Give the backbone structure.
Amino acid sequence: MSSPASPASAPSRADRSIRTLTRTHAALVALTSAALAGSLALAMWASAALGRTVEAGRAHAAELGALNRVARAAMEVAAPGKRVFETYDTDAEAQRLDRALARFDRIRVDADALFSRADHPVHGSLEALAHTLEQIGSEARAVFGDFEAGEYEAANARLATLDGLYSAVSEQVDGLFEGVLTDRERRLGAEADRARWLSRVAATASLGAVVVLVLIALHGRRVSRALARAAADQAERVRALAEANRRAEAANRAKSVFLANMSHEIRTPMTAILGYADVLLEPGHSPSDTVDAIGVIRRNGRHLLAIINDILDISKIEAGRLTVERVECNPIQILSEVYSLMHVRAEEKGLALGVEFVGPIPSRIRTDPTRFRQALLNLVGNAIKFTEAGGVRLVASCDTGGPGRDGRLRIQVIDTGVGMTPDQIERVFEPFTQADASTTRRFGGTGLGLCIAQRLARALGGDIEVDSEPGRGSEFVLTVDTGPIEASSMDPNPSLTAAAPTAAGPSGTQGPARAALTGRVLLAEDGPDNQRLISHILRKAGADVTVVENGALAVESALAARASGAPFGVVLMDMQMPVMDGYAATSTLRRKGYTGPIVALTAHAMTGDRDKCLAAGCDDYITKPVDRGELIGLCAEHMRRAGRAAA
């Protein structure tokens, strides 16, 4: 939990005025001593009253400073209970909690002396705050105990109780500040009344005393106004502190819920993967049981990869590093690919999935086909997930935009699912959230799909709108900018059959059944399991594979093969290896004049990793876990290029 800035951390204009006027007060006291002898006693009386006013202001500032320290110490008690879900170290957080409680007790003892008056509004309130913080300490320790015992749901449930106690702490702290401000107004009001009375008495004094006392009265009013401005400024900063604390608490709650949800979403497929892997190790399986177990492992592995990809996508979007391209593509073919990918999932749930066209659809638009397909897949996948019966319809239409204007492609995704309330619709595009907590428990998911889809749609010059009612289903409308549309490209009778995906698949890479490799491949990979898997895929496709386990051996093997007159057709270079990593190995080969194709093979899939690999000298880039068809297609393409260059 971040510590909010103290409202007294920077002097305000009113604070500076109080200091200036206090210095002026000393000068007026000296002037008063030079007044007429008959008015000396009255002038000294007035000066004492002004001194009490200034002293009251100083005491008020001291009380506010003490309360600021109390507020910060109280808020520090909240951090360990929350941070245990970040650090996973209950011992360290328990120590932090004990230190925070001890520090609060020390600060409270110092502050008690300032509020010891029986008639002070804050008298006794610090004890109530201390009691609430003891309750927080007790609940936080219970959270630590649940966390150590692996009872994560119980720990999350106790966080709701902690949230209520944190709100009570904020209210009690606000009450302390309000009591101090009330006491200040009462005390300074009494001093102001006394100053006004002295002003009336001064009117009957001698001319010299009148002049001096008028100056003192005016000075007192200026002090009062300055104190009033300081009090108002301090109150505003206190409110800002409370608001900052509330925002920090809300962010911490959202983060805790997200971490718990991610833990559940990642552990669920991992449970199936590890469980069925153990099942396969048991003897006596029938071939059908083995195939079923492998299918479960593969399905859950893909689900786990999709979760990781969602997190990477939202990190790119939040960092402002999402890039889109504008190329010509066929939107009807993209719809056909989405249908081909999603109709199996719909059939598994007994749902109908259909695609309809309203009016002519362009066969060519300028957009990013990968991002367009991803946004549409997220919307259709979301509709299928939240639909128990009925079906999902995709309705495509297009506004050509007219002369000199870009067109707009409109895809409606209509389902007969659970639907949403207006409040749920307002939150549905926020990252890491779903309609409500029960939705997450019932349907699962990271809560990132719709957020990513909306950000992608906006990056493509469009947006996503939603219309829904509970029990009636939902309609999400995706629009994208098409660029200028030529009349000749409009298809008056669009259909999925005419635009069915080729055997190469959506990515355009040749599938493994049709791919064939005839050259030599050098695989630089330090992981034994990955060595066996990737070399098996390449050898089955027809390649002659040589495996080395670090970058130094890769450099040696590649240069030796070139010197022997039988160079490798392609080098697959893992970028993180012992002895010499892939970046250094690739740079070394390029410095020694090696011109053969080198493809980076890496698990680094964050923004900028591709550029880093290409800057080191790689010709291409593929991420782990590798797609069989993409790997073989990429190797085949670079082998053909190398062959043409050699010829």
Q: What stands out?
A: The CA atoms of residues 461 and 639 lie 38 Å apart. The longest strand covers residues 473-483. Confidence is low (pLDDT under 50) at residues 1-10, 434-444, 498-514.
